[in-house]
Amino acid sequence: MKKIIFLLAFLPLLFACSNIADDEQLIYVKPQTAKRAVLIEDFTGQKCINCPLGTEVIEQLQETYGDRVIAVGIHSGPLGFAGNSTAIGLATAIGDEYFNYWQLEYQPEGLINRHGAVNYLDWITKVREELTRESSVSMKLEAQLVEGKISISVESEVLGDDYQGRLQVWVLEDGIVATQKMPDGSTNKEYVHNHVFRTTVNGIWGDPIALTTGEKNTKQLTQAVEENWNTANLSVVAFVYNDNGVEQAIKANVTQ
Fold first, then answer.
1. Cα–Cα distances in angstroms (integers) from residue 25 to residues 16, 22, 29, in the given order
2. Rounded to a whole number, what is the distance in angstroms from the first to the last CA of the chain?
């Protein structure tokens, strides 16, 4: 009898535990930072004998850190090759404009999240440093081929304080077989070039972007596909940056 009375007295306590006042319930707190991706702008050229060595460094970094390392091969400068009637060239006028703007002196040389020019021998150290930093911006990216055009959707969200900067979107292509000078002085006519900068989607310096805490910014863009691009190997890179460098970057393959 005493056991029954004890259980009856304990039941209200069990039910009371589930009736937590609204102002006492756990409140979701939005994270203040996100994992940072590192953008390597690799200023390279088909006439550059050391540029394949820079590519090897990038491959090592991507093998180690996966999609947190995003590389863009910007063929440009005095060692870039624009092509001729018999050979494919990958250098672009836009690439040359970037090369001159950053006042680069040799190749391969790269920008690591736009914190100044870095010799390829120091890329591993600089990338590791950037990966230890967190970002205040989170991004999502989708790219789809629709009737000969790339339909692009970029979503950006600030996780901390409001952010002011620019949004840049580029098109890249992998698997381009074209000539390349090699470190031993030879010329490899069957060299496979990856993450090659093809064009900018939204101007050479992108569009202004203002991110407000608690609000998502979605940008819709369209890019026509050039005749000499292989649509099966296209990807899109998007990143936000300001005078303090690249805050966040993301890459997505173009789906068909």
1. 14, 6, 12
2. 74
Half-sphere exposure of 248 (CA within 13 A, CB side): 23
Cut 0.70: pTM above it: yes
pLDDT in tens, 156-181: 999 988 999 999 999 999 999 999 99
- Tokens encoding 251: 């890459």
Q: Give dist(CA 79, CA 15) in Å, integer.
A: 76
